[in-house]
Amino acid sequence: MERIGRAMRQDGSAQPLQGLHLYRHSFPLEQVYSVVEPSLCVVAQGSKEFLLGESRYRYDPLHYLLITVDLPYVGQVLSASKERPFLSLRLQLAPTLVGEVMIEAGHASPRDHAEVRAIAVSPLDVHLLDAVVRVVRPLITREIIYRLLVGEQEPASVTWRSWAATPPPSPERSNDSAETSISPCALSSSRANWA
């Protein structure tokens, strides 16, 4: 929490490293509509809710949100104040990197696809938390993916297993391509308010 607080002195978002997004909000936000790519979302302070169809996924400092495919979503910061601002990070999970880690960890074989979930909330265990805290160091993203593969989020991680046998995405696709269907105003708002 202290690291995000030091990096984010004012409300808004920042990307200190490729694929790592930090967020700060001093008040609850209205619902934001957007599309998000595969990501790990961790809250240091406050809480947020992710709506997908009729399902609601609330995450906070004790729970993380994992998204394994591009998804349209409705998100809303629920708990935030000037005294205790909402602080969070979102780590993009590149399919090619996930595939490499799955192979190295021996998790490349698909399981029962009936178990597949593209999104889930799970308790944030001490090993994953430690890796997230060290995310600014080299190779930590690989460790985080490994922790997700072997941790409580196993049902959602089944979706990733198909990536090991799937060709990597086209190089022409940019990091923001999943959001191209959003209007400029909505896109600007969604990037400022996502995680």
Oligomer: single chain
What Rg is obtained from the alpha carbons, in whole angstroms? 16 Å
* CATH-scheme architecture: Sandwich
Distance between the termini: 14 Å
What is the general shape? globular
Domain count, please report it.
1
Low-confidence stretches: 162-193
Q: Helical segment tally?
A: 6
Order of helices and strands: HEEEEEEEEEHEHHHH
Average pLDDT score: 75
Strand order of the largest sheet: 1-2-9-4-7-10
Helical proportion, percent range: 25-40%
Question: Mind describing the biggest β-sheet?
Answer: 6 strands, antiparallel
List keywords for this structure.
Jelly Rolls; globular; alpha+beta; single chain; 195 residues; 10 strands
Q: Would you write up a description of this structure?
A:
The chain has 195 residues and is of the alpha+beta class. It has one domain: Jelly Rolls (Sandwich). It contains six helices and ten strands. Strands 1-2-9-4-7-10 form a six-stranded antiparallel beta sheet. Helix 3 runs antiparallel to helix 4 (140-150). The protein starts with a helix and ends with a helix.
Secondary-structure map:
Layout: H1 2-7, E1 12-17, E2 20-25, E3 32-36, E4 39-45, E5 47-52, E6 55-59, E7 63-67, E8 71-79, E9 86-92, H2 95-104, E10 119-123, H3 126-133, H4 140-150, H5 154-157, H6 184-193
Antiparallel strand pairs: 1-2, 2-9, 3-8, 4-7, 4-9, 5-6, 5-8, 7-10
